[in-house]
Amino acid sequence: MTLRLRTISRDEHLAFVDSLPSASHLQVPSWGEVKAGWEPESLGWVDDRGRIVGTALVLYRALPRVRRSLAYLPQGPVIDWTDADLGRWLEPLVEHVRARRAFAVKMGPPVIVRRWDAAAVKDAIADPGVRTLADVAPTATDPVGLAVPERLRALGWRRSDDASGGGEHGFAAGQPRHVFQLPLFGRTLEEIQQGFNQQWRRNVKKAEKAGVKVVRGDLDDLTAFHELYAETAARDRFVPRPPEYFRRMWRALAAEHPDRIRLYLASHDGDTLAAAIMITVGRHVWYSYGASTSRKREVQPSNAVQWQMIRDAHALGADVYDLRGITDTLDESDPLVGLLRFKAGTGGEAAEYAGEWDLPLNSALYRAFRLYLGRRG
């Protein structure tokens, strides 16, 4: 089958994504409207019969004072990654973005390489001799995931080392290599809850007994969400996104599909204590952003929010509930281990993606770009 690449319309792009069991929410057309400062483009691979068989949302970001751009495909492209000949997919993409004056391409193949079940993660955290997930034998490996890195290296791609797991700030780009996922397919809610660890089950019951109420919010409720989010950022020492980012996300995703984005808020006696954003594409549901206050932690509002989102994801027919990024560090002194422990309490599994990969098209500009990222920390 001969493939050719062309620019496609938003409707064509969305129709292809909607035909799949799932695709990353970072590869739907609306995500291009969320990323201010990036110029989006929808591309499609077309077969001999004129059918679209793969898509990509490409985000272009121009270098300061230079008419050249980084071409970034977060968790994409959406192609057949099982194909042993990845060149017939990626070479037309490279030529296209080169013509658009890209100095480099960055992409994140949506391919999982290894998985560790919750028991393996729990044992690893408790073992002082284990420092990272890489030191732990995986409970499952994926042959396709293992093959993709070697195929990319043969095509001249190199693994990024600036994708540290935390989204973008300014020019930096990167998605987490390690995530935590809760499988839902073929399981009842009772079976899912039985998979929670004892602390999780106890906390869900505490929230119910205390009378914590979880409701769905709307655009106007993003103000309450952001207040909690800003408090969370100050407590956990990260730079929060501005309120407009979340309003833009809501408008763009909600306009694309009525169930693409949901906001959940947990309250106790009228006091909003926790909130979270959920995103759905096909049968894949993501816990995208979460926030909470330090007040009334004893009523366990964060567990209440998560349990409601898990139940709703199950009702939507989701195959997986994705709690997104985790650290691969298992050192107890690392503050992110607490977040890993919280997510592992769901009884799901840690998963490692193939990582993000770069292809420099202009070596001098690419080196300058890497230096720029390094100076920004």
UniProtKB/TrEMBL annotation:
List the keywords (alphabetical): Acyltransferase, Cell shape, Cell wall biogenesis/degradation, Peptidoglycan synthesis, Transferase
Pfam families reported in the protein's UniProt record: FemAB
Acyltransferase keyword on record: yes
Give the matching InterPro entries: Acyl_CoA_acyltransferase, FEMABX, PG_Glycine_Bridge_Synth
Superkingdom of this entry's organism? Bacteria
UniProt KW rRNA-binding keyword: no
What Gene3D superfamilies does the entry give? 3.40.630.30
So what family is this one in?
Belongs to the FemABX family.
Name of this protein: Aminoacyltransferase
